[in-house]
């Protein structure tokens, strides 16, 4: 794990060796050398090539061993076969960090993959920091440093950008240069053999030059680490990520691209949400958000004032606000009175404030002042269509907005609709730090993201919960079942394990005969449930091997006979232990399902839904990654659409939600404690007004 | 209703009078005159002003009465108070069509609204065609006609555009001019006192210059007419509409904007869907789709070949395809073999075809040829990132794509990522008729829309169904209930009405005493249902006034006593007629809900869902506007998420879907026949494997 200071050699090198820089300007090494010189980098540059021939007027070394010791950074531009040898020599000097631009590693198949594994191992053994392979390098405009293959350079700004895909790096540079935006750090991650998104977040969270972190990723290998680092980072500054490879076609393509397997989208979405990462919906959205966060403050709440000189775009903006989490409230009475004094009688004073076509730059100035000073509003969206009088003074409106922003603590974004006629004004706004969009939708989306970030950063601390539990007992149950070769715990063992976590399980007795069953039922108290007991039978419900609501010994005995003979018929090879006699769940109850499975990248993913068709058919499921905090559990229950049922909607029963929250938290604890349990399903959990029981459960051993 | 030929005076005038054109270049009338002259209009121009002073070198008339008779078109640029008088004089001449640019009508409040009503009436009485008021006018580049207030003109193209909002008109012109796109017709509808979206669709459907119709709307006043016209139009050419005002904030804003009430979004969505209208998600989407349809053929199916020189954007594109309705299939074996012969070993040959960074223009040419000729693919998306070798020949790649498109019947769209470095190539593609987007998401969206349009245009004819019914009987039931002042039909009457439509209702008998009830139950056959009968009690279920599954006379008598005494207690003012004895619905059944309500704009909106929480809580409802065709009914049932339940999922019963389709069609027929029924709910409809019965129903009289 690399700390902030340890990455200094990479981002703030005092000296850089370029391995493979020749006099041929088409060689990658020579391109890097030229980029370093052209960007105005002030540190020392040491080209290395076998012939020791001069590169761009700089004396070159003919061997890596000749480079000064403790050189900070080496950029390696060799064929893949030569890379490992070079890294070994560099480590001996030592050189502290390296960028491997060469391709031909994990992205090319098995042989390349093995090469990459070697590289990672070497980094681990020597402590050398390695970016790449198969990457473009990086830029740090604070040091006028362009240690990359990209001829396009960037000006200094406060956006840090990293990307797994080199193509997206180029796109980001192109966008930034045409929009006049700059970067604080610009990083092409490539195959991420050593340095990953998590390492970058850890560094950039503490980078004083960086206000907002933006990235493109396909896979995150170290999910749980990412989750922690991203959470810590988003509490300080916004993190915007675009993730590709979320559908099966995309995942197939991503796997062909970098040789990586993409994890389940559900787990990624949960991770981003729990870590407070803003997920960009597409490339354009990523850039739009980056720009908004780079130059605007966060609003204190969701209330947006929309100021426009045309109705249609105002309506579109109001629609978009409501589709997001923003509100379009009425101005205060005093603001309305004030606006009445200078707006035309046909103007709409409410919100959107439609100043109608007669509006001039002066009208904009007065209206902006009025809404900025109105405590009702947390942020302002200014829309302009170049019609009527204002067409001649579009740039003056831009200046009016910039002046208003000077004295406003509230974020302001603009939308100037149109092409050539407003391009000058757009540039003015952009250069003055006001994001100006072509269409209202993107402007509202930015305000929505800013608002979300404020809500996230001002949230309460999560309440961590630790339950009493008997881990040793739980582990021994799992170990025993493993030893006798079971892939799934038998129900009674699963119950014992659940009890070790103090999960509420119904009283259950194994009965080998109907007589024993009747005796057990008498003790437990009617009505009871009867289920087949067999280590080989898992889906009892589907096979008709459960009888519920048995009220008398007669009913119980009949059910015992039916179930055991049906099991003998339907599951010929199963060893039938007998039947379980179980207390019924609470009356006036609802059935819910709580489960977890292990995601390859992120670990245990806990899910919650109502029973029956709610999960698989209706998709009404909420998910979070373990470990859950109390607020996670609360959100999970309230997030499903069917939640009102649990609150007693439709004259039904309102159940004990606290009890369900506890079960979710205990299950999360269990998933974290016992990695041997691959999957678990608690279904149904029968929840009533005074508590819940886990009536049935299945646990698969990995 | 205006036919195609009747709008000729508006769109193809041989002579135009400008009412209110003075020598002051700031006067709207003078702006229109200057626009007409500057656009190169060849017809006659007659300025009119009170002083009779010359306008831009053209002799003016001092009174409307002096204009030559049978002048085609008048553009009225007067104050609102003067408009009606002018229209009256114009009608006397007669002048066949008028454009009223003046604002100060319905958008300004009650007085303006009355003025607008007068204008509409005048148009109706005189047969004059009137565009506006409160509009910018129109353009017809075929005639070099700019009869509008907009100084920006458009070149000739094949996109027709109309908009309720003037601001959106300006935005569209700006967009078109900066993208080099042209319009066939360009229309600002304004307040739509006379000419509406439907009139425009009717005209543009037959306009040989128009290939694709694009519009922005907030409200559609003549919903059912729109539905018919739009359906007929979309069978001939694509119609793309952006609708604003769909959320309550947006609707509030729209209502302040044009004084119109926006209808329920649900009805609009149903209307657009049933009419085959493509709904744009935002302004940018509207323009992107317009451009794609204007220059590309429709694909024959959903299979897209993605050709790229960089992995990331290819993954994003594949993701987007799957999120839409497109497929990313493997190329055929022969194509794979062919590509192997010229692509690098690390290239990904499957789909996306990632030619990797080494690709040159020549690689693009060969790969494009291979996938175009492969029968597996219906359309092609070409992605370029300006990296490595291809950076120097980006424009050559554009030429390669244009050449490939020449000989390809399949649609091709491009995505060139980046800023300045690819702008020349983008312009080349655009001018050559290949849409080129900045980001892959928009490119895929366009292919998705083209594919959808092909599917729509090649769909089967809808199967119209007409059921036997006794309208006279139904009408007399409604009339009788109205006469005695009921707002809701009593249950037995509702049943009689349902029977008149041959809806399957359970046998039902009104029993005034428990003796009568027992006699009725004996005839019907146990088990039976017992319900309170009272004209004042409507929500029987919620009040506990229904008992089901009564198996014996004892149970029946007890239930009779309970229900009637509970009703007497809980509904003190209700007149209790007795109880209804009803046959039970089929066993092994599922409950569904079928209902309709009248939308202000579109008329009856039929809804379908499963019973219980599915409709209001889970929102799992499908809706269509009446009249339903058979395929509509089939789609409605299959569209809800819970559909698998009706097919017998989870070891449940598979029910008779045909019977449900019939009920939907009969309900649609009822809604169309009987406008007096404001709302009706058939809930539950109990559907079993061999038929269904409508067990309960409520009908509200308007």
From TrEMBL, chains A, B:
The lineage of its organism: Bacteria, Pseudomonadati, Thermodesulfobacteriota, Desulfovibrionia, Desulfovibrionales. The keyword Nucleotide-binding applies. Residues 495-531 form the ATP-grasp domain. Keywords: ATP-binding, Ligase, Nucleotide-binding, Transferase. One of its GO terms (molecular function) is ATP binding. This is Acetyltransferase. SUPFAM superfamilies: Glutathione synthetase ATP-binding domain-like, NAD(P)-binding Rossmann-fold domains, Succinyl-CoA synthetase domains. SMART domains: CoA_binding. In the N-terminal section; belongs to the acetate CoA ligase alpha subunit family. It comes from the Bacteria. Transmembrane segments: none annotated. Signal peptide: none annotated. The keyword Protein biosynthesis does not apply.
